[in-house]
Amino acid sequence: MDENANLVVYYNGEVIRDSSEGVSFRCPIPFCYHVPSTMTFDELKSGLCQSIEAHTLKRVQSNLYRMPVHLFGGYVQFDTMPVVNEVSMRQMFQCYNHNRAHVPSIELYIEFEQVVADAAEDVSYSDVERQTVLEELGSGSEDDFEANYEVPKEEEEGDDEAVDVGVQNARNTLAS
Fold first, then answer.
1. Any idea where the domains of the chain sit in the sequence?
2. pLDDT tens-digit series, residues 88-144
3. Is the pTM for the entire model greater than 0.70?
4. Where is this region: Disordered (predicted)?
5. Which of 3, 22, 82, 89 would be a feasible disulfide site paired with 77, CB 3.0-4.6 Å?
6. Could you report how far apart the first and last alpha carbons of the chain are, in Å?
């Protein structure tokens, strides 16, 4: 059994209900994405955000899977299934593996939520994103990751005179 799946990702388009196929997705340029069936839900969302229009800051707002439904006489129609967590993602892969002979790829419709630059600092990091940052920094320590984002409290600073001397030296250098 192949452990990978081809995704056809539709975005900035529309979900068409009551078509001859049941439900269909449309968008100007669908995106093809090859994923392992062991991929987690957070990894999928992160990968889609990084791969589709990577120049914009966004997060996945919703995922719809175009799920095949077998009818009498061997006909196949499609319905939608929201992919909202690990459980529904596993169901999507099971359905895909079961219907692989009739449907060669997983079709997803993704809605993105734009993240404004000011609010980017409020975006919480998923475990996958946190791990990626740790690996890029060359450290596997959660403490090192947290230490990079902690601001010392005033009572912890203690050595105000050294800071003041450093600031004064910088001012003198700039003034010269």
1. 4-116, 123-153
2. 999 999 999 988 888 889 999 999 988 876 544 545 555 566 566 555 555 455 555
3. no
4. 135-176
5. 22
6. 71
The pairing of beta strand 4-11 with beta strand 58-70: unpaired
The answer to whether the beta carbons of residues 167 and 160 sit under 8 Å apart is no
The candidate with the shortest Cα–Cα distance to 44, out of 7, 78, 81, is 7
Cα dihedral: 83, 84, 87, 91 (round 10)? -10
Convert 64-77 to b/e letters by CB count within 10 Å (16 or more is b). bbbbbeeeeeeeee
DSSP state of 2: -
CA 60 – CA 49 distance, rounded (Å): 7
- The predicted-structure confidence for 9-39, as pLDDT tens digits, reads as follows 999 899 999 888 899 999 999 999 999 989 9
CATH of region 4-116 = 3.10.20.90
Sequence-separated (6 or more) residues with CB below 8 Å from residue 131: none
Q: Rounded to whole angstroms, how far apart are CA atoms 176 and 172?
A: 6
